[in-house]
Amino acid sequence: MTVPAALGASQIRDAFRRLFPDASNDPVLAFAPGRVNLIGDHIDYCGGSVLPMPIQYGTWVAAAPGGGAGVHARSNRQPPLTLRPGDTAAGQPVGHWGRFVSGAIGVLSGDGVRVPEGLLLYAAGDIPASGLSSSASFSVALLLAIGAVSGQRAEGLALALAAQRIEHEYVGVACGLMDQAAVVLGHAGAALRFDCASRLAEPVALPAGLSIVVADSGVPRTLAGSAYNERRRELDRVAQALALDPATLAVTLPARPSLADRTLARRARHVASEQRRVNDACTALGRGDLKGFGALLNASHASLRDDYEVSCTELDALAETFRSQPGCYGARMTGAGFGGAVVAAMAPDQVDAGSSAAASAHRQRFGTTPRIFVARSHGGARVHG
Ligand code: GLA
């Protein structure tokens, strides 16, 4: 199993100095982790409780005030970007990653923060798989670094909500708050149970004898272009048909709602059953019941595949291959779906053999080798220094 090395602060500072040799200030550095969702998908935008875990990989942003007006941004994964002052309004044609940068500046300015007109930015991500919330990680790191350069230090829920506004207003994805909450509020050594209705967060310790393995299916997913927003609209229709509030549907849906539309009935069944599984998974983890936890992961995958219809052939196959390995308690797709990654709960001493076997089975069937790594829980996003 190849485990990519995570980037460190000194690498980011050196890259910034190389790219902007004339910068007169040392950059402020911020790091925001990615996250793997252990269980509870597609219920955050309807008031459910979810169980994500921030991971050791994420996004660094280095920021310093620049000379003249305009933002000069560089990245280890994206082409160079220059924004002029008017470009920070929503809807400007600034390209995909430009929308995050202009969104962070626009959201901070909208909150009354005086962002310097000239900014130098370097962003570097090291998240080795898709579906691990690189967007929330990038948004939060940008807000922290640009905020610090501007004399503002946002934190906690306010920071998570500001990052969500970047997605809603600038990127065009009507996402819930799970990813931003995980990235901001996470604790090292634990997963985070986040109640999206009350917005209360509580750490959930992972029992000894459990490794969280992540495998990238290799299928790219573009959340905005996918059926994500459509699923949200379907839930609005469910709420309307049952005269319920869409913002709290996950906790108010009856177990067997009477819905004439069969598609809507399946969507509702996923939401209600996934919420129960999150509750049961927290209980199972508390008791150290790894078999029970794994069975809930498997059931979650089946529900996302059959009732919510957000999986794909490669994710189904990868989850199934993991399940057939000795020492695997359970496996499921994680995150929004339509491609992305699988999360598997495994016995630590079986991770290497099981992952190699799963990787070669996947390669034989699909011709691509999935990237696989053990996710370690990381603390929430922060400014360095
Ligand atoms: C994406 C969204 C989240 C959540 C998940 C699915 O990651 O950003 O808000 O809805 O999909 O659980």
3D architecture notes:
The protein starts with 8 loop residues before the first helix and ends with a strand. Strands 1, 2, 3, 4, 5, 6, 7 and 12 form an eight-stranded mixed sheet that branches. The chain is built from eleven helices and twelve strands. The chain has helices at residues 9-19, 96-110, 134-149, 156-171, 178-185, 228-242, 249-252, 262-287, 290-306, 313-323, 351-366, and strands at 28-39, 49-65, 70-75, 81-83, 118-125, 190-195, 200-205, 211-216, 328-334, 341-346, 372-375, 382-384. Alpha-D-galactopyranose is lined by residues 41-42, 44-45, 133, 175-176, 178-179, 335-336.
Shape descriptor: globular
Helix and strand succession? HEEEEHEHHHEEEHHHHHEEHEE
Give the number of DSSP strands. Answer: 12
Instruction: Please report the number of helical segments.
Output: 11
Largest sheet: 8 strands, mixed
Bound molecules: alpha-D-galactopyranose
Derived from helix and strand composition plus strand pairing, the structural class reads: alpha+beta
